[in-house]
Amino acid sequence: MNPELVVRIAKEAIEITLYLSLPIMGVGLVVGFIISLFQAVTQMHEITLTFVPKIVAVLLSLLFLMPWMLQKMIYYTEQLLIQLPGFAR
Fold it and tell me: By the 8 A CB rule, do 23 and 57 touch?
């Protein structure tokens, strides 16, 4: 196993991690922006108002996106296992 192969596997792992986490983080970012905009307009700065909607939105998006995420993770793992005999050379 040469260093280029290890770097390629690590790069692919980081890419798939970012690819799967970006939609969830994007939902949290959009909901956080909307909440902060609401707080700025109403001048209501309740700490639970920031966390509870974000948690609910992220959990709902996870529930909605879980089949897609699982499909991508399974495909990546299958490809990695298929290539495993070639890594041993």
Answer: no
